[in-house]
Amino acid sequence: MPIDFTAISEAFKAAIPFIPVTLRLAFIPLLIGSLFGLLIALARFYQVPILGRCLNGLVTMAKGIPVVLSLMVAYLLFSDLFDQVVTSLSLPIRFSDINREYIGIFVLAFTASISLSEIFRGALAAIPKAQWDAAASIGLTQSQTIIRVIFPQMMPIALPMICSQLIVLIKASSLVSLVSVVDVLNGALITATTSYTFLESYIAAAIIYWALSFAVEQVFHLFERHYTRKVVRGSVL
């Protein structure tokens, strides 16, 4: 079957307006996931009593749950419970008034938190123990050691994996159609519903996802080089 390049162009044009949606569904969960992932990693790395063990179990369990399943469960829970809660509180808002994009952000942020916690925990474990002892010898507290000594050395280790996680989130954002959110993939498929050029629409979406992933990788690469050079210069000085 010959490929209709005109259909690819039309699908490409239809998908471009939804790029901001895909970027929001990737960057916001990454930021939220970085915060909670770092906290989870610190609690597990320092083996905080009770909390550390609970988080170990949570991470182990969450890593085995597919994103699709998480999206469907979250959607069903929100749709069933939200109206009941707001009705009991006599609030005028209803679930139908809520932007479904928030559900996608919530689920992807949860997934990112779990993955990033493992990334940060691995980066923490890669720091030589002598760094902790040296910081303690000059009177730094544990929090000061993390912020001023460990964190600057941890980031160059974690950055490549954070980049990979962001690319994973960009691709995973295509699943939000399950909760009625239109992103790049579903935007590209809009033209296919009338012309039945589904292959061309998928090709157009693939090109956009590839371009976004390539751009993210290049930006992170530049940032990694700049950050590493800055850290090395600071250590020399």
* CATH homology superfamily name: MetI-like
3D shape: flat
What would you report as the Rg, rounded to the nearest angstrom? 22 Å
CATH topology, which one?
MetI-like fold
The level 1 CATH classification is Mainly Alpha
Total count of domains: 1
Order of helices and strands: HHHHHHHHHH
Number of strands: 0
Largest sheet: none
Report on the architecture of this protein.
The chain has 237 residues and is mainly alpha-helical. The protein has one domain (5-235): MetI-like (MetI-like fold, Orthogonal Bundle), CATH 1.10.3720. The chain has helices at 5-15, 19-45, 51-62, 67-88, 101-126, 129-137, 142-172, 184-188, 192-195, 198-236. Helix 2 (19-45) packs across helix 3 (51-62). The mean pLDDT is 86. It is found in: Cell membrane; Membrane. Belongs to the binding-protein-dependent transport system permease family. It is a multi-pass membrane protein.
